[in-house]
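Teaching assistant here, posting this on the class forum so everyone can see the example we discussed in section. The complex has two components, and the goal was to see what a joint structure prediction looks like when all of them are supplied at once.
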Amino acid sequence: MIPLKSTISLFLRTMIARAYPRVVGVRRQPSWVLHEALMPILSIAAFGFIYRAMRAPEQYIGFVILGGAMTAFWLNVLWSMGAQLYWERSSGNLELYIMAPAPMMAVLAGMAVGGMMLTCIRATVIITGGILLFQVSFAPTSWALLILVFLLTLLALYGLGMMFASVFLLWGREAWHIVNLLQEPVYLLTGMNYPLKVFPTFLATVAAVIPLTAGMDAMRQILFSADGFWPLGVEVGLLAALSVLFLFLAQRFLGYLERRSRQEGRISVKWQ
Amino acid sequence: MEPSAIRTEELTRTYRRPKKKKSDNGKDPAGDLVALDGVSLEVRTGELFGLLGPNGAGKTTLIKILTTLLAPTSGRAWVDGLDVVQDASAIRPRINVVSGGESSGYGVLTVRENLWLFAQIYGVTTADAMKRIDRMLDVVDLTDKASTKVSHLSTGQRQKMNFCRGFITDPKVLFLDEPTLGLDVNAARSIRKFIREWLAERPDRTLLLTTHYMMEADELCDRLAIIDKGKVLACDTPAGLKRQVQRYPIFELTLAPGADGALQLDKLPGVHQATLTPGPTSVNAQVALEDESVIGSVVQRVVEKGSRILTLRNREPTLEDVFIELVGHGLDGEVGDSTVPAPNSSSE
């Protein structure tokens, strides 16, 4: 039986080590700032100018800026986290990770932390750019609550991403199609550029399984004192529940993936 | 008694063929692909054990099972006394693997950073990792590339980095799958020298090696298994394997030009078989004798017939001879051109 201290130490070492290439990559490949951070500002700017032209409430422009920043995390989860194990297999690293004593959850957690750090920079650029462009002011009712909601949203989102990573590897190309199918409907359902209360209750309830939906609605309530679709406490509870659910499912899927790949040779035999 | 480092019992692995794949004649291929077929092996602790076999023989499948990446279809296997299926997580800290031609690592990281990363997932402290990385980079002559991004390395340099990766976690059982593939002669020689030193450092270390290079297997391995079509055809020391195919002592004579079939060496009593191969400047004769003492009669016959002997040597069979004898073709797939004369045949 391996002592708990050693297990935790191995988990943390692995997580930090796997996050390292992402973090270092930011410094060594600075060109990403152009397409990853500056281009999305153009996208939110379009919505901002539309709202301004329509003389919509100023907080709507704030919604768009927040939506643009949070969507960066969603895209990172969907495309980068989800595809990560698939990519690791192609580059020959996956076998090394599976064969190592480190838990695969630690490897995925490292990918998530690396992705989060990278996307935080992107989100900060988007928010800063949005504020400078539209002179929007944010006045959070509680910084502590804002940070809590933000962290819970990230935890649930990246839990979902960790689950996607195994699913993508299991179903290969079919999973890419699912992601393609998910991308635009998720933009719609999460209320990226408009308040969620425009939705009928049924649609909003369906959208609630996407952590971004409850997360953004809660943050808008805190930042702009806007009316939310659900009370803030419900949304915080929902995000906490989704975090636990997705992390649990990610672990189960990883276990299933490893068992199945060992049985069928999915990781080591290309045509399996 | 200390358990074997590696043991397999009737190990079998079959792969389900993909449904879409058709055979050359356009029909669905019959049945599953049997990659391993009842393999039973034992590798002792401290041993450098070699696996020789052509492409598709099942060597890599065997390594994947032993490194817990693949489950056997039937049979059992143990590494360091632990079952590869039931105790996979206990085996993993004790092993590592290096595959020739693998492309692992992150291009954005330097050589040193990559090696550090792969040491971390084994729980090696950064201080220990750095010491081992320095030593290994020195072994493979890659110290000057320690701070170079992996994306800027040549294939050979990348292969050297992967070789280092296998050793920095200090495994008890190391699997080297074609470790010198694509390396230049000097690098391959350094690596072979290091492998021997590494094993000698601690008696509880064990190494399983697959290689295409017969000379490498002959030079390095304490024992070898020859594997083909998923079955172990022979398992012994290199010398023992050679003895298995050498039923008769073989002598090789280089004769002055002009020697021909008139020598009739194969008609001499005690000569089992003889071949003459004319070359541009000499004639090469090989004789398989029932007893070494018969060589005297052979020399006498050559002299009597007016030929001149330029050189004479006792020819030991090579591992390639063993391989061809057992598998029916060389590692490169060429069919039966054994340099060991076949019994009861004469080409003189």
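For the discussion questions: Confidence is low (pLDDT under 50) at residues 333-348 of chain B. The radius of gyration of chain B is 25 Å. Think about how each of these relates to the inputs above.
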